[in-house]
Design brief:
single chain; four-stranded mixed β-sheet; two-stranded antiparallel ribbon; 4 helices
């Protein structure tokens, strides 16, 4: 149940009355600013092709410069550590385009949209998503698609399902692709 506090992330156990934070053990633990600002910073860091800086975030979100810089470093360490834990088990890989709606343009409308490749690790019981990674790609060639395999998929402990696009065929030499 909610704890009588201004912090909506705190919960109190009905049995032992222990107070726990929903953000405990995450990069959002003990934030010194609003959680929504932190989510926005993570979104901007993960979607921007240009670098981000604590100074820019400090100005953009009206938070202390050092606080913004420290949180940015925490997010960067978390993003880097993801390479230490590659996707394994059942993994789905597919390529697509993302971008805003294009009015008066029927069809896929790939012009002015960004191509990406996405790898999704399924839960063991296959009823949901465990983790996912996405990479912006220049095109749908094997060289472009290979980046997500090299950076985020375990060669020996994964079974990869694709849409049978021919760009994946050369990767079958190193990864188990069905």
């Amino acid at each position: 149940e909610h704890h009588n506090s201004q912090d909506p992330t705190l919960r109190r156990c009905k049995h032992c009355y222990h107070i726990e934070s929903a953000t405990a053990g995450t990069i959002f633990h003990k934030l010194k600013f609003d959680l929504r600002k932190a989510f926005a910073m993570v979104f901007l860091m993960s979607t921007s092709s240009k670098g981000s800086s604590g100074h820019n975030f400090s100005t953009m979100f009206s938070i202390n410069k050092n606080t913004a810089w420290l949180f940015e470093q925490k997010v960067r360490r978390a993003m880097e550590s993801s390479k230490q834990y590659p996707l394994s088990g059942k993994v789905n890989v597919d390529e697509t385009v993302i971008g805003g709606k294009e009015f008066n343009r029927p069809g896929r409308g790939e012009q002015d949209k960004t191509p990406v490749v996405v790898a999704i690790e399924q839960n063991k019981n296959e009823d949901g998503i465990k983790r996912a990674y996405a990479h912006q790609i220049d095109d749908y060639t094997t060289d472009s698609l290979k980046q997500i395999f090299e950076n985020h998929i375990d060669k020996e402990h994964s079974e990869i399902e694709t849409d049978k696009w021919r760009g994946y065929n050369p990767l079958k030499e190193e990864w188990h692709i069905t």
